[in-house]
C-alpha cells in the first residue's frame, strides 16, 4: 500500500514527496475473541510485528504491534484490563495465527529431559 502525495515545483521539474504514508507490508490476524478462530487480516502501517496475546480467562487478542512494545511491562500498560496473560510476537506474514506461548513449554522440556535420563538408566 503506497499513499503518496507528490509536490512538483514550478522552478524545477523534480518531484519530491509531500506526504508519504507507506505500509510496512506486514499482514497480521486481527481479532479479540474467546474462540481462537481468527480470520480477519490487518495490513500493518507502522508496526513491524504481529502479536497473539492470550488472557488466562480464554480471551485471545491478535493484531499488529511494534516489536519494541513486545515485553511484559509495556503490554501491561497497553492492555490494563488484562492482568494475567501470555504472548508471542513474530515478524512474518500472518504468523500470529496460533496460540500464544505458555509456561507449559519449560515443563515439557523438563519432562523430556527426565524421560531421557530415565531411559538411559533402563
From TrEMBL:
CDD domains: TFP_LU_ECD_CD59. This is CD59 molecule (CD59 blood group) b. Keywords: Disulfide bond, Glycoprotein, GPI-anchor, Lipoprotein, Membrane, Signal. Pfam families: CD59. One of its GO terms (cellular component) is side of membrane. InterPro entries: CD59, Snake_toxin-like_sf. It comes from Astatotilapia calliptera. It is found in: Membrane. Gene3D superfamilies: CD59. It is a lipid-anchor; GPI-anchor.
Amino acid at each position: 500500500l503506497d499513499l503518496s502525495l507528490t509536490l512538483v515545483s514550478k522552478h524545477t521539474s523534480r518531484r519530491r514527496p509531500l506526504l508519504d504514508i507507506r505500509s510496512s507490508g506486514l499482514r497480521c490476524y486481527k481479532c479479540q475473541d474467546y474462540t481462537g478462530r481468527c480470520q480477519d487480516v490487518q495490513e500493518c502501517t507502522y508496526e513491524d510485528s504481529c502479536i497473539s496475546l492470550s488472557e488466562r480467562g480464554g480471551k485471545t487478542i491478535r493484531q499488529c504491534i511494534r516489536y519494541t512494545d513486545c515485553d511484559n511491562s509495556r503490554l501491561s500498560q497497553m492492555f490494563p484490563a488484562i492482568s494475567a496473560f501470555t504472548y508471542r510476537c513474530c515478524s512474518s506474514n500472518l504468523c500470529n495465527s496460533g496460540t500464544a506461548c505458555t509456561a507449559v513449554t519449560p515443563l515439557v522440556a523438563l519432562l523430556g529431559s527426565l524421560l531421557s535420563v530415565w531411559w538411559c538408566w533402563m
